[in-house]
Design goal:
The protein is an alpha+beta fold. It contains four helices and nine strands.
Length: about 170
């Protein structure tokens, strides 16, 4: 009887603790989602290029790659601009065959609309470096100046990083 009572008490504590943890996680996720909302006043000039963007939280500017780095996750965002070129001209050449010739595997292609209402396209490709699997987002936008952003992250970090990365990419202008 004592063992049964002890078991019931432990179960009640576990259920109560999991409810508190779930609420804390929900609060955390809501806070992160709110931090990813577009606000023009948060735009900053990306290093080395004439592109403004809201980088994800905790990413720091890195002039050596014309972009941003998150040291804790080994995630990078490299920004390239191609003056006088509509991004659709570059996207047109990004066939599955071309991507495979570069040593990548096409996972997904997304047609998007950025934060200021312009068309954009994002390719998700996979590759391996050493024993680590990575994914790369190749994001394109811009009608008179193509903006091309390559974002690399370890595949195991995808669930944590992807929402913030996409939200950031959609602010590029």
């Amino acid at each position: 009887m004592i063992m049964r009572s002890l078991f019931v008490n432990i179960m009640v504590i576990c259920i109560f603790s999991s409810n508190i943890l779930a609420q804390s996680l929900n609060d955390f996720m809501l806070e992160r989602e709110n931090a990813m909302q577009y606000e023009e006043s948060k735009l900053i000039n990306a290093p080395g290029v004439d592109v403004k963007i809201i980088p994800p939280e905790y990413f720091i500017a890195d002039e050596s790659i014309n972009g941003f780095v998150h040291k804790g996750s080994a995630c990078t965002m490299q920004i390239i601009e191609v003056a006088g070129v509509n991004f659709k001209n570059i996207v047109h050449g990004m066939t599955n065959e071309h991507i495979e010739k570069q040593g990548y595997k096409l996972i997904e292609k997304m047609d998007l609309t950025n934060a200021i209402g312009q068309a954009a396209t994002c390719f998700v490709v996979g590759f391996k470096s050493g024993d680590i699997e990575y994914e790369r987002l190749m994001y394109f936008t811009g009608e008179t100046k193509a903006i091309w952003i390559n974002t690399n992250y370890p595949k195991e970090m995808k669930k944590l990083l992807l929402p913030a990365l996409i939200a950031s990419l959609l602010t590029a202008q």
